[in-house]
Amino acid sequence: MKLLLHLGLAREMQGELDEALPMMRDALATLERAKGSDHPSVAGALTALGRALLTKRDVGGARANLERALAIRAPREGQ
Length: 79
Known about the structure:
- The chain has helices spanning 2-13, 17-35, 40-55, 59-76.
- It is mainly alpha-helical.
């Protein structure tokens, strides 16, 4: 699960967003199935995906993922 996410992050860092995004989406789906949709690892994957989408200038997609990550993290951080 996390290996796929890390591979996606590596591709993102190399500027290979078209290769990175499917890996990140697959990792997110796997994490959601394995840990549940409100797990902190899911929030981390959503944040990574949101950042990558923002780099690709997909502001709407980035915002949706980042807002979902915030919704998962906020209750745990007492906000």
